[in-house]
Backbone:
C-alpha cells in the first residue's frame, strides 16, 4: 500500500505494508478467519476460511488472480452452462480449493488458525510455522 505525504513542503511517496499478526479479524459481530501460507521463495498467500462473496458474484474469475487458471476456466465454463447457478456452490468451495492447490504446490502453513482451517477444509495440515 502506498500513500503521498508532505515532508517539509516536499511531496513524497511512502510505501508501507500492513501485517496482520492475528489470524482472526473482527468486523462488527462477525469473525473472519484468515490463514497464511509461505513458499520456499518467501511469497506469502493469505486464504480466507469460509464463504466467498467474491466467488459468489464473479464465479471462477478469482482463480485467475490467485494463479490457478485451469480451475478458473473450468468454473467459468460450468457457470455458463448452469446460467450462473454454479456460483452458489463455488462460493463455498473456492477458498478450500485455493488452499488445497497452494499446499500441493509447495506452500507451507504459517501462523495461527490452521487447526480450525484444516478441520473445516477436511485436510490434515502439517504443523504451522511461526511467522
Residues:
Amino acid at each position: 500500500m502506498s500513500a503521498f505525504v508532505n515532508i517539509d513542503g516536499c511531496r513524497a511517496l511512502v510505501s508501507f505494508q500492513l501485517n496482520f499478526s492475528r489470524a482472526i479479524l473482527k468486523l462488527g459481530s462477525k469473525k473472519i478467519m484468515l490463514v497464511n501460507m509461505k513458499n520456499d521463495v518467501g511469497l506469502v498467500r493469505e486464504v480466507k476460511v469460509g464463504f466467498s462473496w467474491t466467488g459468489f458474484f464473479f464465479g471462477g474469475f478469482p482463480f485467475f488472480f490467485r494463479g490457478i487458471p485451469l480451475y478458473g476456466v473450468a468454473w467459468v465454463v460450468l457457470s455458463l452452462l448452469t446460467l450462473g447457478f454454479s456460483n452458489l456452490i463455488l462460493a463455498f468451495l473456492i477458498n478450500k480449493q485455493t488452499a488445497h492447490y497452494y499446499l500441493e504446490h509447495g506452500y507451507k502453513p504459517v501462523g495461527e488458525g490452521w487447526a480450525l482451517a484444516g478441520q473445516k477444509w477436511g485436510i490434515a495440515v502439517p504443523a504451522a510455522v511461526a511467522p
